[in-house]
Give the backbone structure.
Amino acid sequence: MKAIEFETQIEKGIIKVPKRYPEFENNKARVIVLAEEPTIIHEKHSQISEKDFFEVCGIWEGKNVTKESLRAEAWRVS
């Protein structure tokens, strides 16, 4: 099996193989598509601090929960 790599635009479900690869003309091929995904940045969420996280999580309300206390609990030897 021979592999090649190239970039192309898929139009109406058709992938055009560049002419520089004539050996692939009229042949069966296995295709793997690696498509770029649009980058979506949610500015509001990217600026959330540790303090904001604990304020949003009502489950922690009224408890003294910090990174340090969570780590200490996780590493506590029983």
Observations:
- The CA atoms of residues 53 and 64 lie 14 Å apart.
